C-alpha cells in the first residue's frame, strides 16, 4: 500500500493576498500537517493552500494556485465533491465530511484515500459568500489500519477454528489485494518437507499458466524472488523484473503474466525452518514503502501460524491413519503434561517427569540437573523400591563432553543419545539388568540444564516412536520446570522485597497490644501497594502508620519505601504527626518521575500510655479510609478526621485529631482492599459489614482477635474467589496498667 509521506511544516503557498480572515487561517495551517486551501468565487479558484494540501492531492505535479479546483483535481467532479462545494457556496452553510473516500489521480496512478474534512463559506463584511475554505486531515492510514486489523482478525479466527489451509491462504491473499489499491497480486508458495522445493499454495489473481509453471520450483540463489528468498531466509525485493538477474529464467513467464515487480518474504516456523514464501506482485516496476514491508511481515507471520497449524493437524491425522496406538500416545502426553503443570515446584515437577515415564516409555527412569557446574540426580522411578534406591545411588560425572558418560555428553551437546547397550562409565547397570538407554536433554533456549535418562531391561528397546514421545515429553517438562523456576524466583524476590517494606514482627508496646494483617492481591508475584509500620520515638511515644500507594509492583515499592523511611527519619525531629505527614508529602512531590507519580493515602499518628490508663493518640488522616474506634461496650465508631490525599499538591489538606483509648478499647486502621473485597455476585464487603462484624463481639477483643474477626468475616463473604486487591490492617488495643486486671 502507498503511504503518504509525512509532511514537514512549511509556509503556505499564496498566489496573492486575501482577506484578513485568510491570514489567520494561514497562520493556523501554513505550518500544519493538516491540509488547507482557500477557494474563491463560484469556480472555486485556488487562492491559498499549504504543502500538506498539495501533497495529499498528488504532490509536485499539482502545486498550482490561481486555477479552479475542478481543473486542478478533475477527478473530484465525478465523485461529487465539486457539487458539495457548489452547495456550500450557494447556501452559505458549512459541510463536514467524515472518513470520506476519495480517489486521487487517474488511471494506474490513482490512489484511494480517506479524509475528515470541512467546507466552510468565506464571507465579506456584508455577509456575502465570496468563496469556500477547505480544511482536511487524511485518515487513510487509520482507515487502512482498521481494515487490516479486521481482516487479520478474521484470518486468526479461521486459524483458530481450524479452517482448511487453502481457505485461509486464499482469504489472506484476497484480503491483501483488497487492502492494497495499487493492483497488488498475492502469491503463497508452500515448502516441501525437505525445504528444497516450493509448491502452489494460493494465488487467486495470478493466471493459471503462471501458477502451474512455478509450482515445484527449487529454492536457491537466483531462482526468481521466491526461490531466492526461501534460500536466503530473508526478504528479496525485485522492483523491476525486466532487468533483475534473479528473473533470467522466468522473465518470459512474467512478461506473459504482465508482472513487473515482485517482493518475496520467506515464511518461517518458530524454529526458523522454511514453511514457504509470501510474494506481492505489481503490474508496474515499484519499490516498496515501509508500510508495504510491514504488511508483508504481518501476513507472512499469519501464514506461518496457519501453515504450522495445518502441518500439526496433518501430522496428527497421519499418525491416526498409520497407527491407532497414537491415541494412547496423545493421552499419555496429555496426562503427563497435566501432571507436570499441576504445581510450581521444580523438584516435584522433575519427580513427576520420572514417574510419568514408567512403564510407558521405559522400565527405569532418572532425571539429572546441572547446578553450579555439577550434575545432581534429582529424581528416579522404577518398579521396585530396591531398583529405585540403586538408581538413586548412582552419581553422574561432571558435565563434560569428553567424559565417558552419556549424561555428560548429552548435557554438553544438547542432543539426545540412544544405544542398545549399557551406558558407558560406572553405574549399577548389571544389578539393574540394563540393556539399553535413551538420554534426552532438558533445554532452555538451546542450552541443556538437565537430562532425562530412560533405561531398558530384558527385551525392551527404544524405537523411533518411543524416542519421539520421550523428546516431546521432555520438551514439555523443560517448559514446566522453567516456568516453575521463574515463578519461584519471582515469588521469592517479591517476598523479599515485600518483607523489606513491612515490619518483620510486631514489637512489644508500652500500654498497648498491636496486631497486623497483610495479604497481597493475586498470586504474590507483584509487590503490593499497602503498608504499615510501628516504631518508637525518642520521647517515649510510638509512631504508627498504615497507608496505600497508588499502583503495584516496583514503582509502588519505591513509593512505599520513601514514605516509611521519610516518616522514620523526620518523626524524631518534628513536633507532631501533621508535620511528619507534610514532610512525607514534600518527599513524594520531589521524587523522580521514574520512581512514580501516584498519590498516597495514609493514616499516621503517635500514641503514649496515659497516666490514668489507656492510650492517648494524636493522628492525621490523609485521604485514607476512616479509622474505627472499638469502645469497651463493643460499639464501633468511625473516627472522622478530615484530610486529603498526599503526593499531588504542595498544600496538602490535613487536620490533627485526638483520641483516648480506655483499656481494652481499640483503634483499627485498614485499607480499601478489605471493604472493596467482592463475592461471586461482584458485591462489595463494604463498611457496613465491617462494622457489623466487629460490633457483634460479646466482650472486648484483643488486637489479634480483632484481626481474626475482621479477616474471618471478609473470607466468609468472598469465598474461594481470591484476593483482587491488596489488603492490610493494623490494630492498636489499650491494655490495663500494670497491676490492674
From TrEMBL:
Residues 1-21 are annotated as: Disordered. InterPro entries: Bact_Sigma-Reg, GAF, GAF-like_dom_sf, PPM-type-like_dom_sf, PPM-type_phosphatase-like_dom. The keyword DNA-binding does not apply. The keyword Plastid does not apply. The lineage of its organism: Bacteria, Bacillati, Actinomycetota, Actinomycetes, Kitasatosporales. This is Guanylate cyclase. Residues 160-317, 352-491 form the GAF domain. GO terms for molecular function: phosphatase activity. It comes from Streptomyces griseofuscus. Residues 512-734 form the PPM-type phosphatase domain. Keywords: Hydrolase.
Amino acid at each position: 500500500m502507498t503511504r503518504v509521506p509525512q509532511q514537514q511544516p512549511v509556509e503556505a503557498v499564496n498566489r496573492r493576498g486575501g482577506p484578513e480572515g485568510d491570514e489567520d487561517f494561514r497562520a493556523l495551517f501554513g505550518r500544519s500537517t493538516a491540509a488547507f486551501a482557500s477557494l474563491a468565487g463560484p469556480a472555486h479558484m485556488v487562492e491559498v493552500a499549504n504543502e500538506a494540501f498539495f501533497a495529499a492531492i498528488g504532490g509536485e505535479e499539482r502545486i498550482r494556485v490561481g486555477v479552479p479546483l475542478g481543473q486542478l483535481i478533475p477527478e473530484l467532479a465525478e465523485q461529487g465533491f465539486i457539487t458539495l462545494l457548489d452547495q456550500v457556496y450557494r447556501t452559505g452553510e458549512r459541510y463536514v465530511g467524515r472518513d470520506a473516500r476519495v480517489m486521487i489521480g487517474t488511471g494506474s496512478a490513482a490512489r484511494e484515500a480517506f479524509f475528515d474534512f470541512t467546507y466552510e463559506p468565506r464571507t465579506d463584511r456584508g455577509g456575502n459568500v465570496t468563496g469556500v475554505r477547505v480544511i482536511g486531515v487524511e485518515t487513510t492510514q487509520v482507515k487502512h489500519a482498521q481494515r487490516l486489523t479486521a481482516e487479520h482478525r478474521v484470518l486468526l479466527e479461521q486459524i483458530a477454528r481450524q479452517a482448511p489451509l487453502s481457505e485461509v491462504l486464499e482469504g489472506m491473499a484476497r484480503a491483501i489485494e483488497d487492502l492494497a489499491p495499487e493492483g497488488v497480486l498475492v502469491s503463497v508458495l508452500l515448502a516441501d518437507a525437505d525445504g528444497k522445493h516450493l509448491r502452489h499454495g494460493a494465488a487467486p489473481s495470478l493466471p493459471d499458466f503462471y501458477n502451474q509453471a512455478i509450482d515445484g520450483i527449487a529454492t536457491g540463489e537466483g531462482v526468481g524472488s521466491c526461490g531466492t528468498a526461501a534460500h536466503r531466509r530473508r526478504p528479496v525485493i525485485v522492483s523491476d523484473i525486466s532487468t533483475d538477474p534473479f528473473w533470467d529464467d522466468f522473465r518470459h513467464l512474467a512478461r506473459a503474466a504482465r508482472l513487473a515487480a515482485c517482493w518475496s518474504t520467506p515464511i518461517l516456523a518458530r524454529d526458523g525452518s522454511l514453511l514457504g514464501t509470501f510474494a506481492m506482485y505489481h503490474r508496474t516496476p515499484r519499490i516498496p514503502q515501509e508500510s508495504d514491508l510491514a504488511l508483508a511481515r504481518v501476513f507472512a507471520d499469519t501464514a506461518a501460524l496457519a501453515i504450522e497449524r495445518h502441518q500439526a493437524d496433518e501430522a496428527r491425522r497421519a499418525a491416526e491413519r498409520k497407527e491407532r496406538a497414537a491415541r494412547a500416545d496423545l493421552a499419555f502426553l496429555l496426562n503427563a503434561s497435566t501432571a507436570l503443570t499441576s504445581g510450581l515446584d521444580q523438584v516435584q515437577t522433575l519427580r513427576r517427569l520420572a514417574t510419568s515415564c514408567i512403564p510407558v516409555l521405559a522400565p527405569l527412569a532418572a532425571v539429572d540437573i546441572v547446578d553450579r557446574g555439577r550434575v545432581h540426580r534429582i529424581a528416579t522411578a522404577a518398579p521396585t523400591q530396591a531398583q529405585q534406591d540403586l538408581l538413586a545411588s548412582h552419581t553422574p560425572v561432571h558435565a563434560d563432553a569428553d567424559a565417558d558418560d552419556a549424561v555428560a555428553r548429552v548435557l554438553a551437546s544438547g542432543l539426545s543419545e540412544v544405544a542398545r547397550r549399557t551406558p558407558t562409565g560406572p553405574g549399577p547397570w548389571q544389578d539393574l539388568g540394563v540393556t539399553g538407554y535413551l538420554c534426552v536433554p532438558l533445554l532452555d533456549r538451546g542450552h541443556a540444564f538437565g537430562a532425562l535418562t530412560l533405561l531398558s531391561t530384558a527385551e525392551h528397546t527404544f524405537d523411533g516412536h518411543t524416542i519421539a514421545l520421550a523428546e516431546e515429553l521432555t520438551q514439555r517438562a523443560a517448559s514446566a520446570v522453567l516456568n516453575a523456576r521463574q515463578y519461584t524466583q519471582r515469588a521469592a524476590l517479591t517476598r523479599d522485597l515485600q518483607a523489606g517494606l513491612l515490619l518483620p514482627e510486631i514489637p512489644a508496646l508500652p500500654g498497648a497490644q498491636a496486631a497486623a494483617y497483610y495479604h497481597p492481591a493475586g498470586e504474590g508475584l507483584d509487590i503490593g501497594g499497602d503498608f504499615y509500620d510501628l516504631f518508637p520515638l525518642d520521647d517515649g511515644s510510638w509512631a504508627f502508620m498504615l497507608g496505600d500507594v497508588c499502583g503495584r509492583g516496583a514503582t509502588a515499592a519505591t513509593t512505599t519505601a520513601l514514605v516509611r523511611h521519610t516518616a522514620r527519619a523526620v518523626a524524631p525531629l518534628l513536633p507532631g504527626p501533621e508535620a511528619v505527614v507534610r514532610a512525607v508529602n514534600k518527599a513524594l512531590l520531589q521524587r523522580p518521575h521514574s520512581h512514580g507519580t501516584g498519590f498516597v493515602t495514609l493514616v499516621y499518628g503517635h500514641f503514649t500510655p496515659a497516666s490514668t490508663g489507656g492510650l492517648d493518640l494524636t493522628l492525621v488522616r490523609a485521604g485514607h479510609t476512616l479509622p474505627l474506634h472499638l469502645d469497651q461496650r463493643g460499639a464501633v465508631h468511625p473516627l472522622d478526621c478530615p484530610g486529603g490525599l498526599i503526593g499531588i499538591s504542595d498544600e496538602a489538606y490535613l487536620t490533627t485529631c485526638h483520641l483516648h483509648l480506655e483499656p481494652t478499647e481499640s483503634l483499627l486502621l485498614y485499607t480499601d482492599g478489605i471493604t472493596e473485597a467482592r463475592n461471586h455476585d461482584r458485591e462489595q464487603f463494604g463498611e457496613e459489614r465491617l462494622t457489623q462484624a466487629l460490633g457483634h463481639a460479646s466482650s472486648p477483643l484483643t488486637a489479634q482477635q480483632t484481626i481474626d474477626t475482621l479477616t474471618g468475616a471478609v473470607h466468609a463473604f468472598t469465598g474461594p474467589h481470591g484476593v483482587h486487591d491488596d489488603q492490610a490492617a493494623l490494630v492498636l488495643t489499650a491494655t490495663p496498667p500494670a497491676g490492674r486486671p
